[in-house]
Every structure is written in C-alpha cells, then in structure tokens.
Amino acid sequence: MTNRNTKHTLLAAAVSAALCLSAGSALAAKAGTYTATAQGHNGPVTVTMTVDAAGKIAALKVGENKETVGIADSALRIIPEQIVEHQSLGVDTLTGATYSSKAVLAAAQDCAKQAGLDVAALMLPVKKTPGKVIHKKADVVVIGGGGAGLSAAVGAAENNATVIVIEKTAALGGNTMRAGGGYNYADPVLEGKLKMTEAQKKIVRDMVAETPKNELHKKLLDEVRKQFEAYEKSGAQGVFDSPEYHAVQTFKSGDYAADLTLVYELCKLAPGTAKHLAEMGFDWHDYASQYVGALWPRSHDAANYKSGFGFVQTYEKTIADKHYPVEYLMQTRANELVMEGARVAGVTAVDADGNTIKIDATKGVVIASGGFGANVEMRMKYDKLWNGLLDSKFPTTNSPAITGDGIVMAEKVGANLVGMEFIQLLVADADTGVTSTLVGQGTSMYVNREGKRFVNELERRDNLVKAILKQPGGDFCWITTEANANIDKNGLNKYGLKVEDLIKQGKIAKSDTIEGLAPFIGCDPAALKKTVDEWREMCRTQKDPQFGRAAFMEDVYLDKGPYYAVRRSAAVHHTMGGIQINTKAQVLDKKGNVIEGLWAAGEVTGGIHGKNRVGANAIPDALSFGRIAGIGAATSK
C-alpha cells in the first residue's frame, strides 16, 4: 500500500513561537476575516486570514493565483498550514517554490496588519527543537523525486521491491516538472509525415562520410549509410531517422566527448520508454516536431499534459493506482551514503524537523538528484566553456534544489566523475532565466534589436547561445503567429501560464502586423518587415542563403497574423557532467569498477551528452536510465 508522507512540517514549534502573540497584541487584534494580495512568481497571489476573538490566526487560505501547477502547489498549501500551526509568520520558504512562498507570507503579513496583530512578534523565526533519530528500511532507496527518480521507483516497484523516495523539496518533479516536455526518439512513422528537404538529406550524407572516432562509431555510421541508401531507393519522401542516426548525431553534437556506448543505449531505450509511458496513460501527440537545439524533427510531447508535468504526473498516478509499495519522504535531504564494506547499503538524511533519518537499502540505492545548475560555487569551480560567466549574477532555468548533492555524496564513496566542466546554457527569459514565459517554438525566427536574423535557429544550443550573447543587449526576440503559438482554448501557453498576463508583464508582445512588433523588439519597422519577407521566401523555397537552415516546418511560418514576439536571452540549463555509469546505470569508481549497491540516472550522471546536450534528449535520458537503474537495483542479489 502506498504510504505517502503527508507530514510537511517546515520547522518544529518552539515554546517561544507558540507564544509569539503577546497579550497586548491579542487584546489589540480585531476578530474578523481579512484579504490581501502579493506578487508571486507568475502574478498576484490572494490570501484570506481569519482572526478569532482571542487574537489567534484561526485560518489562512490561498485564493485566486496564477502560480505554476505542480511547482507552487506545495507552498500554497504548506505555508498557510505552518502559519496557523505555529501562530507565526517566521516560517521558512519552500525550496523550489520560493517566490510563491514569499507571496503567501507577504500577503499574510498584510492581513495581520489589517487585523491589528503584533506583526513584529509574528515575524520572529520559529525555532527548531533537537531532532530524533528515525530508522527505516526498504529494498531500494531513491535519492531524488524528479523524472529519473520516479521512473526508478516505478521500475523497482514493478519488480516487487519496496521503495523509499527521498525528496528534499516539498513537491515531486525536480527539473522534469520545469522542462518544456520535449522527448526525442526516432519514429519513422510520425517523422515520415514531414517532407524531407534536400538540405536535410545533405546533413545525413555528410554525417555518414565522416571519419569514425572509434569502432562503435564506425559500426553505427556504416549502419546509417545502409539505412539511408535503402530509404533513398524506396522513394520515400518523409524525414529519415533511426536509433543509429539519433546516436551518431548526438555523439557529434557533443563534440565526440561522450561515451558512445551510453549514447547508443539511450537512443535504443528511448522508444521503449515512450511506449511504457503510453501504457501508463501518457497520451503522445500524433506528430513529431523539433525543439530548440534538437537538431532533427524527432521531438515528441504530451497531448494530455502541459510541459514536463505529464511525465511526473504519470509516474505518480501509476504508483498510486497500482498501490505500489513506494513511500515518499518529502522535505528530506539525503546527505550521506552508508557503506558496508565496499557496498552501498543505505542513506542518511535529515528531515524538515531536524530529525536524522537512517534508511537501510537491502538491495540498492539509486541517485537521481539532478545536476548542479543552481549551485554557483560548483559552476564556477568546474566550468571550462564560458570563461567565468556563470557567477551568481547569471540566471538558471533550474529548480533552486538542483545543487549537486548526489554528485558530492557519490564522489565521497569513490565514484568517478566525468565531464564536469561541460555546462549548457539555453534560450530563456531575459529577466528571470525561466523557460515558461513564452509562446511558439524556440525554432521560430530569431531577430536582434536591429530586426535582423543572426543565426541558424536549428543550430546546437551552445552555438545559439554564443550568437545571442554577441547581440546588442545580449538578447533577441523570436517571432511566431497565432496559429503556431501553442495557446490553448483557455488562453494558456504550453506551461499553463495565461498569455494575456505575460503580455501585461512585458514578456510577450502581440500585434496584427509585423511592423507592430517593432517597438517591443526595439528595431525599425521597415527593417523588421524586410527580414520577415526574406523569411517567408525561405519558408517557400526551403532554402536559407543566409545561415544554411535545413528546414522550415509549418510551426515557424509567418504567413498570417496576429503575430507574437518573445524576448529571450540565456541561462544555465543543464550540467552534462556527473557520476560515471555503465549501460546498466551502475556507478563506476575511478578504476572503472562497479560500486556494488549503487546506481545513478538523469542529470546527476555524466558521459551521455558530451560538451553539448541535444535539445529534448534529457527527458528520455532521465526516464530510460532511471527505469534501468530501478529494475537493476530491485533485481540485484
């Protein structure tokens, strides 16, 4: 039976916190119900506070808000619970939902002022009491409740293992929840619906003509050559693809710095993982597209969910519906792997109350805690690609919880780390670094503040960012149309944010004419119109004389308004380096030997993406190797 830990206490109540309302403040308080709003991550958050005749906070409820479903839910629920329980506004914000937490606290403070409560007393921090030592046991312990961790949990539970998932935030999902939702795998049927251009054919021919880097590379190139020859003889018009072509293209995009055995394993596993998701209720769109930096139109996404939320929701729902023996320890931070001789036998963690949790893992531990994109110190320590650019002033798309904990723990027990110097930047919100404030596709036309194109929009992510950072202001705008904006019937974008709000916030501009976007972009209207006219001709001919773009699919056409412009810049997105694993997701030591009892999956690992990660390869990586890790741990002896 699933035992989800629903105790989300941030801090234990101390005697001083319980008495934080002075007698004077209680007498001065006015019983009643008070409402206030404060700015959250996506917009205003409304809070209603009820104060009783004794001057106590009897209830606190969050009302209308536009915070992100799945990410902010925990803050909107737990912060009010804590305020009422401790009769204090001095509770901690929740990691991963900081802006939403602060909004609830700010609005609650406003309500307290309206009620005549002693706000200064209420703001005193709640103090922790000394923690206990709690012992637990499971067959498999998973560190991290994101996509890789949940996939591992399901894989283990399907193989009759009991599972404990340790998640240091108050919500499951990790970076998977924040992702755009793109999932790459070779699918000749859906890709076959798209007409292959001569430029795309040339890319394949040039690829198979390359000098092999090793024996496996030679084998794969030979196989792709045979496959493509058969494709051309068949007279097919659709886009060519195969797991082997996916693998060699990924290997090249990472400058051949990846472990090709892992790359090929990913590309072979991805279709099966997609099928497994469908069997669990994940509904895939019946078309293939191309996400930013994906290099080929093999990206797939959900028809029944927004962004990356669907992957997380599918695993959660499967665990609940099938009553899998999975226990979640929320707001619990793993800090050490427990060794018995040379084998990893458990995990030590600390929960929100300061209790020490000692968990025995009878079969194995899976590390799925993500990379280190939100850890500035680690970014600055390891980066060798961006010349000191990634300091505290540089934003990240990541959850604040993605701080490299698992990498540090694994290294302490002898795990080898690979590719730590390879950090990826991505096109993101120019102010905040988040990816959610958009409409349309990242493969739309890019224009700088002069209204001119400056790059092939289908380029590798690192090359895109290098070009962006050279532009005036270090930013750009992409342009899309109403028909291709991915706005649903409720006016929400692919991340579930209201587009009208994003326009009001200045994240997006909308106009019935191309020229009408010029003030937002900061360019001359005539210059922008000239660029768009040239773009329309390239869409018609499928030829790009400026930057050599290989294809212009319908979702980037600018043939009819209304039009939208989205301002973007760059943010830290993915850390390609991490724990070295083999194709079974087992962790390797510095001599290449397996560390018994330890598996790893997702962004916490290294060696799969090389110097540059292909867009929409991260989710199949996390979910496929997560599943392999969970099954491996559950079936180990």
UniProtKB/TrEMBL annotation:
It catalyses: dihydrourocanate + A = urocanate + AH2. It comes from the Bacteria. Keywords: FAD, Flavoprotein, Oxidoreductase, Signal. Its cofactor is FAD; FMN. Gene3D superfamilies: 3.90.1010.20, FAD/NAD(P)-binding domain (3.50.50.60), NAD(P)-binding Rossmann-like Domain (3.40.50.720), Succinate dehydrogenase/fumarate reductase flavoprotein, catalytic domain (3.90.700.10). Binds 1 FAD per subunit. Binds 1 or 2 FMN covalently per subunit. Residues 40-115 form the FMN-binding domain. Belongs to the FAD-dependent oxidoreductase 2 family. FRD/SDH subfamily. NCBIfam families: flavo_cyto_c (TIGR01813). This is Urocanate reductase. It comes from Sutterella massiliensis.
